Amino acid sequence: MRVIWKAAVGLVFLLTARAPDRLSAQDYRAQALRILKTVPLIDGHNDLADAIRTRGGLDSVDIAVPQPKLMSDIPKLRAGRRGGAVWAAYVPVTTIDSGPHPAVYALEQIDLIKRLCAKYPRDLAMARTTADVERNFKAGKVSCLIGIEGGHAIENSLGALRMFAALGVRYITLTHWRTLSWATASTDTARRGLSALGRDVVHEMNRLGILVDLSHVNDATMSDALHATRAPIMFSHSSARALTHHARDVPDSILKLVRANGAS
Length: 264
Description:
Blueprint: H1 2-16, H2 25-36, E1 41-46, H3 48-55, H4 74-79, E2 82-90, H5 102-119, E3 124-126, H6 130-138, E4 142-149, H7 158-166, E5 169-173, H8 196-208, E6 211-213, H9 219-228, H10 241-244, H11 252-261
Parallel strand pairs: 1-2, 2-4, 3-4, 4-5, 5-6
Helix pairs in contact: 7-8, 9-11
């Protein structure tokens, strides 16, 4: 997976770097399109699965045609030259208290994502590895990857974590907006970070090849995870706090650790 994220991030840096005056906007567009023919650009966090569930399920919407009320559909993916997307299996924190168990909710979202991908085989194909993404890209298909948004989905169980890996989950956002017993959310003013179980979760994710996603966690959890991890981590939907000053965003002190970690 690391190659995929580096390719996507590298493209972003290329497109946002200061342009020599001699090149026009059209030249840059042409250059970007040439790159996108050879490098699969990956959307690292896409909430389409949750939007489809909210609208009533897979049969409630046809993403093969433009959907003005949705942020993603197949025409948009094609227009954006997308090589793949990590569909977020978002799990509301309210499931901790009532309704479906977090693990059940996550399983239902994973099922929805897999059925969504199977429904449009001409355009979409599941992927678990870099090789899968590259093969799909050569075949002209958008790769479907799975990420869980909310570590409460594992219900404090390393066994559940391993089963999610077996189902194809390739990253987990450690928390959402609510603190867990093993990881502190960005909405929490407490200075604690990862517990002993939290560090075990990070190590097991490393072993399984699941990326540790640090969006939504507090600064202490970011730091603890970066010191505990044995593999690159990621921030799937965070910005630099110096730019936007949101609790979910990343302070400069953590960005320095990210650089040392080789993360994206």
